[in-house]
Amino acid sequence: MSAGTTARDRTGGKARSGGAWIEDWRPEDPAFWEKTGRTVARRNLAFSIFAEFLGFAVWQLFSIVAALLPLVGYSFTPGQLFTLVALPPLVGATMRFPYTFAVGLFGGRNWTIISALLLLIPTIMLGVIIQNPNTPFWMFAVAAALGGFGGGNFSSSMANIGYFFPREKKGAALGLNAAGGNLGVGVVQLIVPFLVTFAAMGAVFGGGSQTRTDATTGAETQIFIQNAAFFWVPLVLLAAACAYFFMNNLNISQATPREQAPVAKRKHTWVMSFLYIGTFGSFIGFSASFPLLIAIVFSEQSATWLAALGPVVGSLARPFGGWISDRVGGARVTLVVFALMALGVVSVLAFLEAGSFLGFFLSFMVMFALTGIGNGSTYRMIPVIFRTERERMAVDRSESGMSRAREIGLKEGSFVIGFVGAIGAYGGFAIPQAYKYSIGATGGPQFALMLFVAFYVACIAVCYYFYARRNAEISC
Question: 6-468, what's its fold?
Answer without folding.
Answer: Growth Hormone; Chain: A; (1.20.1250)
